[in-house]
Every structure is written in C-alpha cells, then in structure tokens.
C-alpha cells in the first residue's frame, strides 16, 4: 500500500511541477519573474494539497490539514537548503549535490505529507501494534 501511494506521490509531483512551470511561463509574460515565482510557489502548495488529498492519500480535505500542510514545504525547503549547503561545503559539485538532496527531501516530504493529511484514526490503524505481554 505504501509503495502505491509513493508512486502516486511521484506522479502528483510531476503533474504539479509541470502545471506550475507552465503557469510561471504565462505569468512571467506580464509580471516580473520574482512575482510570478512567488505566485506559482503558493499555487503549487495549494495544488499539491489538492492532489495529495484526492489522489495520493485519498483522504478528505479539512481546514486543519490545509493549515498544517504548508509547514511540510517549509521543512522540505529548510532541510534541502541545509543539506545542499553542507554537501557543497564538503566539496560536492552543486549539480551532484542537488539530486542527492532530492533523494532525502522527496521521501521526507512524502512522510510529512502523509502524517499531516491522514486522520489520527487512520494513522492509528496503520501503526504497528505495540508488543504485548501475555497475561
């Protein structure tokens, strides 16, 4: 089950990347690239929320998860920035460091998204049962 949701996560990420890039190209015809990027970044988080709730994790959207969801991308950004900075300081070429960073941030984003979007009841259902001693 996890493998299939991770595959859906990768597909949703590809769709989101393509859609937001296309929107960036269109917006950058009429506004400065920095403004277009900011609008696209925010719309990308919103689209990611919709795709992750409806397609990836097949859960219901809620105000609570919608408020917490941008935090996933804040953690992803800060983790990626820190790791990329460290790798480059350690002498790794940035063109190699970036894919290495993505190997950490993509699964991290998946795990955090799943945690934010799944209801507490569903998280409890999928958690391993605690070891119990016979009585």
Order of helices and strands: HHHHH
**Total of DSSP H or I helical runs spanning 4+ residues:** 5
Span from first to last CA?
Answer: 33 Å
Structural class determined from secondary elements: mainly alpha
Radius of gyration, whole Å? 18 Å
Question: If you average the pLDDT, what whole number results?
Answer: 89
Low-confidence stretches: none
Biggest sheet architecture: none
Query: Count the strands?
Result: 0
Range of helix content? over 70%
What amount of the residues lies in strands? under 5%
Number of domains: 1
Shape: globular
Question: What would your notes on this structure say?
Answer:
This protein is mostly helical. The chain has one domain (2-120). The chain has 5 helices and no strands. The protein has helices spanning 2-28, 33-56, 63-89, 94-117, 120-126. Helix 1 packs antiparallel against helix 2 and helix 3 packs antiparallel against helix 4 (94-117). The protein is globular, with a radius of gyration of 18 Å. The two termini are 33 Å apart. The model has no long low-confidence stretch (mean pLDDT 89).
Could you write a compact summary of the structure shown?
The protein is mainly α and 135 residues long. 81% of the residues lie in helices and 0% in strands.
